[in-house]
Structures are given as C-alpha cells and as structure tokens.
C-alpha cells in the first residue's frame, strides 16, 4: 500500500485528515442528476452532525461556526451518502437538495462561467429566504 493511501482505523472507518485548519472541503452533489451544487468546509463536529441527522452540516469560516444547510432558508440537503476521497482529506456529500443550494438563489453555486456569463437558473429570491 502506498504512503498516501487512505488509512482505516480499528473500527474499519476511514481516517480523515483534517489538517492544521481542522477542516476539509466537502462537495455537495445532487444524488440524482450528478450536478455539483456547492463546496463548503467540514469539521469533525460538522461531519458527526451530518451522520447523526442525515442532513448536511458544514463549518462557516466567515462566521466561525457550525451550520446546518437550509436551517434558515428551508433549502435543506438530505444526505444520501457520504464518500471519502482516496487521501482522506476531502468529502463528497451525495444529497437530495430541497430548493436551491446557493445563498444567492441559484440551483448551484457554480452558476457563472469564468467570463461572468450566468449559465445557471435562479430558483428562489434570496431576499425572501433570508429575511
């Protein structure tokens, strides 16, 4: 086995590498369509809450706090499966997304090209969702 292969603990669980920051990136992907919805960061506590509740939890770097996706807007992410990358330093949340994933009202946070062209669909009014 190579040095950078994912390590497995005594309980058969993958050992995750949260690094010096204490968090790893998690990509949320629509479980049905395969569309990439968003990228956020996860701490061990956020991952534990996700596994306990079946709803996506993340860590907000700007607010320095744990948050449940959709707790304010109602646009929750129900977890279908959580996958770990080969190095144990990134996660993939396969989700059933209710409403839009992006806080700006779009279905996906990846709704613009690098040239600024809007290619995604706005599915809700953020002013109404975050009153």
Q: Strands across the major sheet, in which order?
A: 2-1-6-5
Helical content stands at 10-25%
Report the radius of gyration as a whole number of Å: 16 Å
Total count of strands:
6
The helix tally amounts to 2
Shape: globular
| Structural class assignment | mainly beta
Uncertain segments are: none
Q: Could you spell the SSE succession in H and E letters?
A: EEHEEEEH
Give the DSSP E fraction (strand runs of 2 or more residues).
25-35%
End-to-end Cα distance, whole Å, is: 52 Å
Q: Quick check: average pLDDT?
A: 90
Major sheet = 4 strands, mixed
Tags for this model:
about 130 residues; 6 strands; 4-stranded mixed sheet; two-stranded antiparallel ribbon; mainly beta
Brief summary of the model shown:
The chain is mainly beta.
Describe the structure.
It is a single chain. The protein is mainly beta and 131 residues long. The chain is built from two helices and six strands, in the order ββαββββα. The strands form two sheets. A four-stranded mixed sheet has the order 2-1-6-5, covered by helices on one side. The chain has a two-stranded antiparallel ribbon with strand order 3-4. A hairpin with a 4-residue loop joins β3 (57-60) and β4 (65-68). The protein is globular. The termini are far apart.
């Amino acid at each position: 086995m190579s040095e950078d292969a994912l390590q497995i603990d005594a309980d058969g669980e993958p050992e995750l590498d949260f690094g010096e920051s204490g968090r790893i990136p998690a990509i949320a992907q629509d479980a049905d369509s395969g569309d990439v919805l968003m990228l956020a960061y996860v701490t061990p506590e956020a991952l534990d809450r996700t596994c306990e509740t079946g709803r996506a939890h993340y860590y907000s770097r700007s607010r320095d706090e744990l948050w449940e996706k959709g707790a304010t807007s109602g646009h929750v992410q129900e977890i279908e499966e959580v996958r770990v990358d080969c190095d144990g330093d990134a996660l993939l949340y396969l989700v059933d997304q209710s409403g839009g994933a992006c806080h700006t009202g779009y279905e996906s946070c990846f709704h613009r090209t690098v040239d600024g062209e809007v290619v995604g669909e706005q599915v809700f009014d953020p002013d109404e969702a975050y009153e």
